[in-house]
Design brief:
Length: 303
């Protein structure tokens, strides 16, 4: 039974790139002010640094940043960095994590890995910020610290199914980080003039190019890494209608275009216009056009 269960659990934890998040190492350390500041170091994995207590100064890729307790810093691979303790002592925890590539990719919700790819984009229209690190100190900080504590504790032990528990905790951490980063991403848009508008226009183009394959509003929101609620409000403010209404209009307009060609069967138009079934197509079309698809075709062919 367990032999069959474990592969299923592992498969379900892969992200949208077919990757399995992995913690390579977890470290705890008390650093004291009298210690010599660390030398510059570079890692080929993501480094996640959590400050339990105290105050330190980070120098990351030449940028200095003072970090206080209950703050998490994610440093991207290949970035030089060092720390200097400012308070008498600092209680720190560090995880080094990355993503292994299995042979059979899956499709799932947008992952932390894809968000980090998005965050490092050089395209100004899609950039979360080109900083070499990300600081998280918002509402998720307690949850993040609790999971990191559990990961370090598990990594130091040898309990039953130790490896599987490490994978589960790592996935939990990645999901929590994704939520925290998305929250800070949305909060940052409130003070970044015009950025929300750019993202709405990117999402609108995504809808225009993909509505025929039956995409949802949730997919459009995920494309620009926004929650569906935030995306809906921003879209309505910029475009004047909700994303659902916009998406439906695109489908109905396409259906009307196809219905004017009497060589195409009405039953086949639903999928071509992006509807999941002929029944849903008929209901939606009648609601928006006041007549059935067949009645619309007859009306257009008579005129």
């Amino acid at each position: 039974m367990f032999d069959k269960l474990l592969p299923v659990l592992e498969d379900s934890m892969k992200n949208d790139n077919g990757s399995m998040p992995v913690v390579f190492e977890g470290l705890e350390r008390i650093r004291e002010k009298r210690e010599t500041p660390s030398e510059m170091s570079v890692h080929q994995t993501h480094e996640m640094f959590y400050l339990r207590s105290g105050k330190i100064e980070f120098t990351i890729d030449g940028v200095k940043r003072i970090i206080e307790k209950n703050t998490t810093v994610i440093i991207k691979p290949g970035i030089e960095h060092k720390i200097r303790v400012i308070s008498n002592c600092a209680d720190t925890m560090v995880l080094y994590f990355g993503f292994s590539k299995p042979t059979s990719p899956t499709t799932a919700a947008p992952s932390l890995e894809s968000f980090l790819d998005f965050a490092q984009s050089t395209d100004d229209e899609r950039s979360y910020g080109n900083d070499p690190f990300i600081v998280l100190s918002g509402s998720y900080k307690k949850t993040i610290s609790n999971i990191m504590e559990r990961i370090v504790e598990e990594k130091q032990g040898d309990a039953y199914n130790h490896e599987l528990m490490m994978e589960i905790l790592t996935v939990e951490l990645m999901l929590t980080l994704s939520r925290a980063m998305k929250k800070e991403w949305e909060d940052s848009l409130l003070v970044r003039n015009g950025k929300a508008r750019e993202l709405v226009l990117i999402a609108r183009d995504f809808i225009d190019e993909n509505y025929e394959r039956g995409i949802t509003v949730a997919e459009a929101a995920s494309y620009v890494f926004l929650s569906q609620g935030y995306f809906t409000r921003a879209f309505r403010e910029e475009i004047g209608v909700s994303p659902m209404a916009y998406l439906m209009k695109k489908k109905i307009d396409k259906a009307c275009e196809l219905l004017e060609n009497d060589e195409i069967k009405v039953s086949g138009i639903a999928s071509q216009a992006g509807f999941s079934s002929p029944q849903r197509f008929n209901v939606a079309f009648k609601k928006h056009m006041g007549m059935t698809p067949l009645e619309y075709r007859k009306k257009m062919t008579r005129s």
